[in-house]
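Backbone-to-sequence.
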């Protein structure tokens, strides 16, 4: 069985290798990746899944603004190919979402597949209400309110904090 714990500095190299294996070199061209360049992840909101001492998955959250409202950007969520379907990604997200809620964050956004992310509460945002830089399918822009009506305040361009 895997365990989830907070990311530690010594995990950085393993996380980088996992993300490269999961997303390949094309990750650098994605809008969400560009929002992370030059910005550190949100403190205390990086988590890893371990089993038998080996890294099986990781998730990070990044500070962004949506229009004038502060929010978090989820990602990358990475799980080793042979470990997909075991609930690792969902467990990592649940841990991160709860930590973000306890930390006073109001909302989380991401670009992803609704059927998967809806399992932890994400919903599609109104078309063209939230705009990522670069080409992004508006149907894949999702949000999660960490407090009531927090998504109502999200409108505009997503940019680095």
């Amino acid at each position: 069985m895997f365990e989830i714990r907070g990311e530690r500095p010594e995990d950085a190299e393993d996380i980088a290798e996992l993300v490269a294996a999961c997303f390949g070199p094309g990750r650098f061209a994605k809008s969400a990746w560009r929002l992370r360049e030059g910005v550190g992840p949100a403190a205390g909101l990086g988590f890893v899944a371990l089993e038998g001492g080996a890294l099986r998955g990781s998730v990070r959250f990044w500070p962004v603004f949506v229009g004038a409202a502060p929010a978090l950007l989820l990602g990358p969520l990475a799980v080793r190919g042979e470990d997909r379907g075991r609930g690792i990604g969902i467990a990592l997200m649940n841990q991160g979402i709860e930590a973000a809620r306890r930390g006073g964050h109001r909302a989380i956004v991401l670009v992803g597949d609704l059927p998967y992310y809806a399992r932890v509460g994400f919903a599609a945002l109104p078309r063209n209400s939230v705009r990522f830089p670069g080409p992004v399918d508006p149907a894949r822009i999702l949000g999660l309110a960490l407090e009531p009506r927090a998504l109502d305040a999200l409108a505009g361009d997503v940019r680095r904090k």
